[in-house]
Amino acid sequence: MSGGSGGYSSPKIGAGAPPPCLNGPLMNQHLSVPTEQGYNVVPPAPYPQQLPAKNFPRLAAEQHNYDYHQNFQPGGNFQGFGQSSSRPPLNATHLQKGTSADGQGIPLAAYPASYSRMPLPSQGSYAPATSSSVHLGASVPPQPSWQYNLPQQSHPVGQPPAGIQANHVIPAAGTGQARAPLEPYGSAGPKPAMGNQYANTAGGSFVQNYTNQVGSSHPPVNQPLTQMYQPGRTPLAPPPLSGGPPLIRPTHPLVTANHDAPLAQNLVGNSEGFNAGSSGDQSVAPDNYDTVEGGGEIMQPIQQGLKTRRTLGHSYPSLPPGYQNLAGPGAPNTEGPQQFTQAPHFNQLMTGMGGLSLQQGQQSEAARSLNLLQERNILPSTPVRAPHPNLHKDLQKLNCNPDVFRCTLTNIPQTQSLLSKAKLPLGLQLHPFRDLSQLPVVTSSTIVRCRSCRTYINPFVNFLDQRRWKCNLCYRVNDVPEEFMYNPVSRSYGEPHKRPEVQSATIEFIAPSEYMLRPPQPAVYLYILDVSHNAVESGYLNTVCQSLLDNLEALPGDSRTRIGFITFDSTIHFYSLQEGLSQPQMMVVSDIEDIFIPTPDNLLVNLNESKELIQDLLRTLPQMFSNTLETQSALGPALQAAFKLMSPTGGRASVFQTQLPSLGVGALKSREDPNQRSSLKDVQHLSPAIDFYKKLALDCSGQQIAVDLFMLNGQYSDLASLTCISKYSAGCIYSYPSYHHKHNPVLVEKFEKDLKRYLTRKIGFEAVMRIRCTKGLAIHTFHGNFFVRSTDLLSLPNINPDAGFAVQMSIEESLVDVQLVSFQAALLYTSSKGERRIRVHTMCLPVVNSLTDIYAGADVQAVTCLLASMAVDRSISSSLSDARDALVNAVIDSLSTYRSAVLSQQQQQQPGVMAPFSLQLFPLYVLALLKQKAFRTGTSTRLDDRVFSMCEVKYQPVSYLMLMIHPNLYRMDNLSDEGSININDKTIPQPPILQLSVEKLNRDGAFLMDAGTALYLWVGKRCCPNFVSQVLGASNYVSIPQNMTQLPELDTAESERTRTFISWLREQRPFFPVLHVIKDESPLKASFLQNMVEDRTESALSYYEFLLHIQQQVNK
Amino acid sequence: MAFTFAAFCYMLSLVLCSSLIFFAIWNIIAFDELRKDLRSPIDQCNPLHARERLRNIERICFLMRRLVLPEYSIHGLFCIMFLCAQEWLTLGLNIPLLFYNLWSRYFHSPTDSNELMYDPATVMNDETLNYCQKEAWCKMSFYLMSFFYYLYCLLHSLLPMRSPLHWRDQTQTGRPFCGTPASDKCTWKPGTLMRVEVAHSHVD
User: A793 and B44 in contact by Cβ < 8 A?
Assistant: First the structure.
């Protein structure tokens, strides 16, 4: 750590901490301790099953990583086949073969399973209306205005062809029961006259609405609670006196004073009822709860009742984790048990705005403050989910899936001053092209949009009457067009608010012809392969060619799909694949200074017409260069050639590169000093060395070309410069450091699987994304891979389902007279079938005016990811230590504001780190970020790894990035079906998530760490023999193979359980995480232990020390 | 006082300052051009427009970059000139901007590359755009104010009679009849005397 971040060093921490710091010697002294104790953790309390010490061998693999592939073989002659350009002139007519090479559906088969846990609210299944214009996922393609060759698209209307839009899985079953949630107002309670009236009603009737509907339409998640909220109870009933007098004292300012007396009565009764229900179990958990709750303000019995249910102390809750996941998709929220184990805080429930709905309860719960220093097990045992915005439940049901669209603050501050006071970043996290299991697709000749701001009509607009709607972004009143009056779902007239556009926050339109001036581009794929000696030596060509051969049919596209190949070493090789040739022809261009395309017509060929030639080429390509002696790499000229080749059409260029480009334009020099890898000083060379790649990327972006980069380098390749080619052309970047087909078989497997996904996943061409927000909010910075074309328009030559985006926002005008704000992301793209489509996501959030509510609504994961993106920018524009300081300061600032502005005087007096419940994981996540590859110092990190990690931080969606920041740890040797969930008739166990601390490890057990891109199964030395034999298939611990990467398919219950759990984890992400079985002496143990973010390392603080540091800074 | 070196400096800086004002105005217009995309949203999404728009952005950024160095060198020249002319006040007014230019653009340059700023890839971020636009406005107002300041200083050095200090010098040394303190107090006296004399002559 540099001198600039000196406040972070441990001497200060030890000094000012009121609680005794039991964490052993200070860090500085610690450095002199032998390395094997570097990881040793002395927890504050004695743990019987703690590992005494762990040896921490410095990565043997890393040390010789860079020394591969340097043995040149003398002799051997490069013999390409046919370097001639003499070929018979061919008739260049494109035959239209009516095949449908369709691969869209393939990667999706896995997804419905994971999705059913978190159902999209009401993205419902519309009744199959044969004559309507609303599609059921897959259905009729529009009749485009230009005529290509669409014979295969002429399916009859009634039978949706599975091939065409297979991505949008048809909700075959469930149309019946899904109808009910579609109706905004259930059968209970008096129906207001107009559907969307709630949004512009004033406070009084707001509450009225709640009272009428909350109880009856809530799912019975928890029986006593549901009864509590039963509006049917007489409001004046005296509270049953079973648990002592209620001492309800509102401590927080009223959000709105709308609650009236009967409601309050109800609540009093409710708390009593709850009390009576839970006072049976009087097992009092000891210690710290009073301070946590704020000095016994709440009545004691409730506390006790709560305590028994809460995850407290050192034990896990008795409730089976994840039991709520058993609930069907109809349940509106499956937050996991901690929601209920940490039941609502009643005095806040009293004060909370209309605090009657369940979400209100959660919100006030989220506002509760915790003393982090006293919460030993801060990590919930189930996956952390996005908080629910404090909305009317009907709106909430319609709101966008948080996996697609989420905001760092689910309660938007009213003014910029309030926002800057809260010290939390305001921004959005987007995953716009995510694979969805259900997606309503609408074809209509007119797409209804606001006339002034061009917002698409969405569920959060107000219908003033049947003929007019008011835009929720600019408040302009628009007319409802005549066609919109007819609702094809119900086949009724005059119900525009029942249209799918108004019922689903995520929707896809098939754009009419006015959205395109030129015909949509065909799917064009160009593969640019490094064939220098280094590349051939690594053996990646085999894998790429084999994967392409296997997936040629599955490449997304239609009959127009085109494909081409370029290889390069010190020269550029083109391959003519014109139909009619007997074999592919290679053309070598050695003039790399002034690159030209030898035969522009036959290099990108129609996939269907030239399939045999392509297959021929792919079979011979790996052998063609097997004896090459060329070590130079002319990547720059190859990219220029690719640009020229693809300029007329646009498309996707996939570059496979294994070394530093050394010839022609774009040649780079090594900038890394290996001695500096683990230095505490600032990291240099995080920014590009030359502008060539950025400029070329911008040119590519202008021609709708995206460049995807696969780095398979063994040595330093200056990713900081190379990645620019993908960053600005909306490509994606993959890195397989030290790839070698023999030395690194694990990576080969991962590469194969990733390639399969990469080749077959959905793709959108020539896309643009525009993000609109309610007037008053302004977007000021974007994060991700794209080119910003206008202040709110991102140019995306390609869009893939794994790309995430983040934006930062500011509040330019005060939102005082606004209750709700909305955000809309519209993605216009050309599908691989040549359709122009618009995918629209809309999210609606409430506006609040108090800091308490802002903190209560903070989404800690989104905040962390946005901060990480900002920190990447900072480390490039300023320095890494600046970025690290900024991350720590973000925690300190927000917590100290919380302490000074939100907590009462009494609470402020208490020592400790007080944090709102919603931000309880914030320090932990930030600490994890500081130990992440992108931002860590002191641990040996190669520059390329760091840069790649930074790229991932910028473009990975939240759900995948969070695992890379803070992995999940599970205990595997005692998996049981308790609390398991059921997907597709498979029982998937749900073990609790453990904290990332070595103290949780146990020599008697086996532990699985899910780090997003890799899975580590650590097997303890004394692991029960049952697990070793039944799951790992080895007779004893010693006989477990060293580099085990697959679990044997044994016919035992344990094996079955373990394998279903691991495959379930894998299904949740697009790319394949390799499983590493790790024993005590494995070389990979170091990377496993590096993820133990709560522990102290030689150069970084433990979680407890970090908290002490924060405490010191906050209490200053 | 005659035409000094300082006067020459001010004269030159007047001319050059007008070019700086022009640069700043040009920058403001360019940012405005960048910000607004006079297209209908549907048209904006058109891929053909993408190319055109990208070219536009790159062209504007390129031109703006071309103007950076002249602007900075002109301003640097000012500072050197005023240093030589020992116009300390003027120099003091210009030094902060000089440091800002040097710091923000050369020492604090975010990239290792030689491209300094107005990167077409990031300039469209609202934050960057706002910052650059504000900067351009501030610079323009600074140049405008310094233009008038230079004008004043130029006149000041060219027309010494206007100075109250010089006036006193001349009144004290130039005229014989102002030799006494009494006449210093009231410059009217000689005039009245004259008038009296005239009156006398008229009577005569």
Answer: yes
